[in-house]
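Consider the record:
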Amino acid sequence: MFDGINLFFANALKWINSWVGNYGWSVVIFTFMIRLVLLPLTAKSRKGMRSMTKVQPKMQELQKKYGNDKEKLNKKMMELYQKEHVSPTSGCLPMLLQWPILLLMFTAMRVVANEHTIQMLLDLMNNADVSMQGWLWIKNVFQPDSFLATILPAAGSNLAVISPIGYSSILTQENIEAARAFLQTPEYAAIAAQYGANAFVQLPLNFLITSFTVALPNSFYAFFHYANGLFILPILAGVSQFLMTKLTNPEQKQPEGQQLAQQNDAANAMNSGFMKWFFPLFSVWICASSNSAFSIYWMTVNIISILETVVLNKVFDMQDAKAELKAGKRD
């Protein structure tokens, strides 16, 4: 079932690319389509979170009054939820659906990237024409957007992260082994040099019990002409994630009472110190280590989420204003 869903996402992306002719813009369009389908759930989630925010003062009063009696507090809280017609899970459950979609998109774009990489290497091996998928400042969307990433896979690499996929006609064991063997040949080293592979210094590093290699451009010319990207997507992803976290997790006003204030201080510190900074930093890391196509998806999702939050908040403000005006006329 999981492979079937991955195949659907990968084929949908390929279908869009057959019309657009560029995988970078195909990912942007596909992301807009996904977010459009999820918009009703997003609106429901935002409304649920907004409702919970509105009842926060009343919840804090109950906590202050019944803080020493948990059974009574839980009972009063349930009565408050029923009276205000809110659910503590209404803002969370719709948002949880986005994580499986995120993982599916990551897997689908990794499959597409691996297919394109293997096919490109096979074409180079057979002296066929190679179509490089660029996007704006990125020279190959199937490599990371980084000045540490080369346009083509480094000569001598073994493509260890690529494994056969049962539903892919390209990602077969035979094709992968042929591509791996080609990477070890002098012929490929000469081809990679034409794309600036020799303009990078391979620096082996050891970290704890692991060892890895970092490619560094050996000149400013190499940085601007042969680096696959400029590290713009990871930065934009981190900044947009920070803004989105600020919009969707506003800081709550501290309640009165020393014990309750201390509890709220700890919760607020966790929110501001962990939620505010962890996810932006995680966004930078995942986009720096993933292919640019997935980074485009991540950044586009964040930007759309920011726009959705701003627009939905304005819509909800208008609805609240109309409801208050209607209630005032009744009085």
